[in-house]
Amino acid sequence: MPKTMLVPILSIFLFSCGNPSSEPQKDTIVQQSIPARPLTDKEKAYYQDKIETLYNTTLKKTGFNGSILLAKNGEIVFEDYRGMVNFRTKEYIGPTTPFHLASISKTFTATVILHLMEQGKISLEDPVEKFLPTFPYQGISIQDLLTHRSGLPKYDHFMDGTRTE
Length: 165
Prior knowledge:
By secondary structure, the chain is an alpha+beta fold.
């Protein structure tokens, strides 16, 4: 066989080795659930002791005000509230005290939205007014909010009125 025929034959051979299907393959999401066993009383006591020690040796020195929750295998092991909401009125932090979480809430919000999307309950392209009918800005999608591209001029108007400025 002449060398001039070798290149075209090899090219045909290489291009014919691809996937015969013309449709792109779809990704498959596999969800696994591994049931967790309940914690023993000894394990709960161990975790409670560790977090109490951490608080007393580290956080207490900083004047920490907040809530502490430790959960393992879906079970609350330790829950405690330290400090005051208002030093003038001596109002202490408790289980119903609201906290302004600022940027940390972005992670939680995105995670919940993506779980709802996986369940088919929401689309990133859905307009906000689908869920909040009185939302005054039309055409803003869930994705716009998640990517901080909504251009909302005064988002603090949507707060519950507890803020004083």
